[in-house]
Amino acid sequence: MKLINKETKVVVQGITGTQGRFHTARMKEYGTKVVAGVTPGRGGQEVDSTPVYDTVAEAKEKHGCDASIIFVPAGGALDAALEAMEAGMDPVVVITEGIPVRDTIELVARARQLGTTVVGPNTPGLIKAGESKMGIMPNQVFKRGSVGIISRSGTLFYEIAAHVTNQGLGESTCVGLGGDPVVGLDYIELLKWFQKDSETKAVALIGEIGGDAEEKAADFIAVGGFTKPVAAYIAGRAAIPGKRMGHAGAIIQGSAGTADSKMNALRGAGAFIGEQPVDVAKALKKVLG
């Protein structure tokens, strides 16, 4: 699994669009090495002094970029992601929302064949606090520190990061998994990474109703796969079964995927469960001092 640091050279696919242009500027403000952009048919242009190419392969040849972030509309996102993977970009961060599930299944399957780390789709991205950001999260809430964050939610991701920062702890690496039913990275892969990461002393795990990803993470923690402190918050406790809440993946079917089942599983594995988002940061402050 490959994440990012201050040396990561980033190419932005869809850089000439409104979102691509806006967030490229924010990423560069944060210190991210955005070296090129790609929009087919726009090669030779520039966006705020970042050169634009027609293909990822061309951008890589000229600038040696090694990671891609995708702001391409849903209909073209699969092709963009496949192009990035074939050109050797790793990680590939897919911000795009509304990609058809069949396209995402193909995208994730190809990533597994190639051994590429895919973050998303429908993700706020990832950030190595104080070094590099590939995503749409607000720059000002993050501060270099020792708490890793894994989140299925975007807004709760930023809110809990702000609470962690306000408690004087700061963050190491933070990853938004994405809110779709099928995504690339999952909790377990990230917990394995955080277990080995010497900068990360504890993890904030932010889940939401729907699916069984949080229960699987709890099982992994329970058998000793992750031994550092975990504080968790599960969104969607008031959700009505069968009704989608916010994200495409946030739907309860039967008794599976409820907030209670997720909280009970994580509590049983030894994680602290916050009643409010701020409780997660306060619990980590107690543990880490």
Question: Mind explaining what this structure looks like?
Answer:
The structure is a single chain. The chain has helices at 18-30, 56-63, 74-86, 101-114, 155-166, 187-196, 213-222, 259-268, 277-288, and strands at 9-13, 33-38, 46-47, 50-53, 67-70, 92-94, 118-119, 125-128, 132-135, 144-151, 171-176, 202-208, 230-235, 272-273. With 289 residues, it is of the alpha/beta class. It has 2 domains: 9-119, 3-Layer(aba) Sandwich (Rossmann fold), CATH 3.40.50.720; 137-288, Rossmann fold, CATH 3.40.50.261. Strand 3 (46-47) and strand 4 (50-53) form a beta hairpin. The mean pLDDT is 96.
**What is the count of DSSP helices, taking H or I runs of 4+ residues?**
9
**What is the CATH third-level topology name of the largest domain?**
Rossmann fold
End-to-end Cα distance, whole Å, is 30 Å
User: Which CATH architecture of the largest domain would you pick?
Assistant: 3-Layer(aba) Sandwich
Spatially, the strands of the biggest sheet line up as 3-4-2-1-5-6-7
Q: Largest sheet, if any?
A: 7 strands, mixed
Query: Any idea how many domains?
Result: 2
Oligomer: single chain
Top-tier CATH class of the largest domain: Alpha Beta
Summing up helix and strand content along with how strands pair, one would put the structural category as alpha/beta
Break the fold down into its secondary structure elements and pairings.
Layout lengths: L8 E5 L4 H13 L2 E6 L7 E2 L2 E4 L2 H8 L3 E4 L3 H13 L5 E3 L6 H14 L3 E2 L5 E4 L3 E4 L8 E8 L3 H12 L4 E6 L10 H10 L5 E7 L4 H10 L7 E6 L23 H10 L3 E2 L3 H12 L1
Parallel strand pairs: 1-2, 1-5, 2-4, 5-6, 6-7, 10-11, 10-12, 12-13, 13-14
Antiparallel strand pairs: 3-4, 8-9, 8-11
Helix pairs in contact: 3-4, 5-9, 7-8
